[in-house]
Amino acid sequence: MRPLMLLLVPLLVAGGCGSTIDRLSQVGQTPKLSAIENPTAQAGYRPVQMPMPTVQPVAYSPNSLWQSGSRTFFKDQRARNVGDILTVKVSISDKAAFENTTARSRTGSDSVGVTGALGTAIDTIALPASMSAADLAGDSSSSSSKGTGSIDRSETLSTNVAAVVTQLLPNSNLVIEGRQEIRVNYEIRELVVAGVVRPEDIASDNTIESSKIAEARISYGGRGQISDVQQPRSGQQVLDILMPF
Predict the structure, then answer these.
(1) What is the pLDDT of residues 176-189, one digit of tens each?
(2) Sheet containing 85-112: which strands, arranged edge to edge?
(3) Whether pTM exceeds 0.70
(4) Cβ of 163: how many Cβ atoms within 10 Å?
């Protein structure tokens, strides 16, 4: 155990040196908010590729004053182009309860012996008096297992977040991404929403429900002093992964 700890300490110090120094430099200060940046310029950003339907020819009405798909006479107020903003109404109410019980048992036995004249000859010539050829070998086995498991989970989240249209797909669907950070004292709460929406699902007030977002990615968490205390230390997390028992 001691050689393992001596090996892990330099790795932990080298791996977490940068973050440790940053944390030490911010002692007594509130966590810093992230800068507003272009989501498409973030490291690891990948344009979304989805199966596209056959492109239909566009029909124009040059003599009509009404724009197709508009909900206002002069201009459609809903987001439809890259860079437009819409409000996502995040409403998650998830509850699940499962209970499973399994039981299994098995018993088996086998025996091998020789009877008749051959068995009598073996008893007389080869075997001692305490043994019989009719019961030369035997085995038995028995196994049983029982398992019980239950899950009782309830999650509720209700909030709003503004998202930006980052991509317009060939079938007019919109790829959106929104990020919201709120700092309360020494804790930052972060909400991230991303996915693909249909323009038809955007309401007239330029809002959309989270249940209508395809490939939805919703993350709600925090960082700061409270979250730091709730998490196991880095060394403990490493040991939890490496230790087999």
Answers:
(1) 999 999 888 888 88
(2) 207-209, 85-112, 137-168, 174-184, 187-197, 214-224
(3) no
(4) 26
